[in-house]
Write a structure and sequence with these properties.
single chain; about 375 residues; alpha+beta; MetI-like fold; 2 domains
């Protein structure tokens, strides 16, 4: 009678599929990743960094609607492929208006200045302001539209939905980059310390303990100040502070696995230490490393948000959920708390997603369940 065997990975995958919250979180993360990559194809404001300001409509509540007049320019360059992923550097000027009318072959508009307020009218002519358009009907159809801000506008009149979706890129990107750096350094030093032991282990453990004793946020701030403020500097700084947890886990796992018979057999066959570590040890200790990587991913998002809130993370006008909270936390007591609550909920949802995925992976690889 033939026996049907399943590998540990297959068994873990089957157990993971039965975890509703793990599968749901993974699907949500995949959706966030797709939105982050193709953000400029779906957001209302496709300017670079979603930075098109309209001070007349600042701090509006979700669902706010206003008419927009676009002043068409014939000097704009053609759209390039990179603009679909990084936004347009040059955008046409838009004017929020309360109302408009056409009389004496002129377009008379009332700029939006606030609810129940009337601004000074502006007059536009077809020949001077809308060159290339045949009549006012064509101008109305193509250049005047009603625009709805689903999440409202920030204090500079920028579309909150666009800023939030573009800001998602930073949170997801810093998670991937920081976890990659922490895995590269942590697995290397942890494997060397656990495999060779002795003075090498003592030296690496001393380095781990010293790094561990420094508060994470303080260490990130020091590295950020040394490397300078910027997008990539934050990625590197966060990654350089998260490797110690990976190193400790890998070291303990390697110390346990290196006593196994298949490792002894590999040494007997004359395999090099590097090959034994890479081929025989590391693949067998990936389960706890994957779990801790999910937790580090969530921690990286929180650290980046904290740095941006302090002003040393992603620099304006680049949108970041932490910087959006920083710009609007005063509005919590000014009757418009949603300006700070919306990015806060986004951070919470993404962090919780990775924690649920980590818990599901842990349960999947737990042989006792």
């Amino acid at each position: 009678m033939a026996q049907k065997g399943n590998s540990l990975t297959q068994i873990a995958l089957q157990k993971f599929k039965k975890d509703f919250w793990g599968v749901f979180s993974l699907a949500y993360l995949a959706l966030c990743f797709v939105i982050a990559v193709f953000a400029y194809l779906i957001i209302p404001d496709d300017s670079e960094n979603a930075n098109q300001m309209q001070l007349a409509i600042h701090s509006k509540s979700p669902g706010f609607t206003v008419k927009m007049l676009t002043l068409d320019s014939k000097e704009l360059p053609e759209t390039t492929f990179s603009e679909y992923f990084f936004g347009k550097k040059n955008v046409v000027e838009q004017i929020p208006i309360s109302d408009y009318k056409i009389e004496n072959n002129e377009l008379v508009v009332e700029p939006y200045v606030g609810e129940n307020e009337v601004g000074m009218s502006k007059i536009f002519t077809l020949s001077e302001n809308f060159e290339g358009y045949k009549n006012w009907q064509e101008v109305e159809e193509k250049l005047i539209e009603e625009k709805t801000f689903l999440l409202g506008t920030d204090k500079f009149g920028r579309d909150m939905l666009s800023r939030m979706l573009v800001g998602m890129r930073i949170s997801i990107s810093i998670g991937f980059v920081a976890v990659f750096i922490s895995l590269l350094i942590g697995m290397t030093l942890g494997a060397i310390a656990g495999y060779f032991g002795g003075k090498i282990d003592q030296l690496i453990m001393w380095l781990i303990n010293v790094t561990w004793s420094i508060p994470t946020l303080l260490l990130v701030i020091a590295i950020t100040l040394a490397l300078g403020k910027g997008f990539w500097q934050v990625f590197i700084a966060v990654g350089l502070t998260m490797w110690v947890e990976v190193a400790r886990v890998v070291r303990g796992q390697v110390m346990s696995v290196k006593k196994m018979q298949y490792v002894t057999a590999a040494r007997t066959l004359g395999y090099t230490d590097f090959r034994i570590i890479k081929t025989h040890i590391l693949p067998n200790i990936l389960a706890p490393v994957i779990v801790i990587s999910a937790a580090n991913f969530a921690a990286a998002i929180l650290i980046e948000s904290g740095l941006s809130f302090l002003g040393i993370g992603a620099q304006p006008p680049m949108p970041s959920w932490g910087s959006i909270i920083k710009d609007h936390y005063n509005y919590i007591i000014l009757g418009k708390p949603y300006l700070a609550i919306i990015p806060g909920l986004a951070i919470m949802s993404l962090v919780m997603t990775f924690m649920l995925i980590g818990n599901a992976i842990r349960d999947a690889f737990d042989v006792r369940i």
